[in-house]
Amino acid sequence: MQTTKKHRGVVVPMVTPFTADGDLDEKGARTIIDYLLEGGVDGIFVLGTTGEKASIPLLMRRRLVRLATDHVARRALVYAGVSDDCLIHTLEMAEESFKLGVDAIVAHTPCYYSLQPDELLEYFSVLAGSIAGPLILYNIPSTTHISLPLEVIARLSEQPNVVGLKDSENSAGRPEETVRLVGGREGFSLFMGASVLSAKAFSLGMDGVVPSSGNLVPHLWRDMYLAAQKEDWPEVERIQIQANHAASLFQRNRTLGQSLAALKSAMSTLGLCEPCVLPPLRTLTESKIETIRQELGSLAGAGISLPARPAARLEV
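Above: the chain's sequence. Below: its structure in token form.
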């Protein structure tokens, strides 16, 4: 599996660190960015689902995009989520993000109204035609309650600035059909957002993955991508099992929102950020954080090492 597309590899949907009073933790954000880059990721995606974008006020979103582009400083690609049920707000966030230097914006379907395929096609066509940079489509029916139809994706992929798809829908046969319809299309990248399907995605020829557990073990995902590039499929499968184990640390027996609080708690034990999440999500209690701290030790037992992070980073 080889790809020379610009948008490829491991793109981590970065958690957004907050202080106890709900402000953006800028020091924590820089620490996380450094941790991800040291882990060898190809891109950093701010303001995605894992980043609690829906809970973050608009001005804070812009602060985070500015911080990310400034601190990454072209060491990797930067993606920014801009979705809003109000198209004007989406367009304003897209314009601001491009001015701040992001490499592409990411947008999922508006999710207040139930939309039909022709309505979705028109919406994204208007969005793509109204922005001055690349757009990556984002399909995540677990939160939007709308599945972006593959025939709509195929039509949109013909627009010159629609450069990719992040698909987080875990339904039988969808990865294969997606690759059949738009895989290998010049200038259009396919990212798997359901991390449990990453090995399958790579074997089908998809260009990259967007794993939330990349916040915790970015090096593991880098190794999977490198193995896929070499078409070492037994190694890809072996790493998939390890990645699933790492993800289960914060996802097991939890809702999506609860898993985000647990992920931050795990990252807090590594000194990367505080465990704080924004309402309506709830920060875990200290006793639950202690349980996660103890479970982190199980990663070593599964052959998963956690990268060292210089303590000095906390003083940035």
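The first strand starts at residue 9 and ends at 13.
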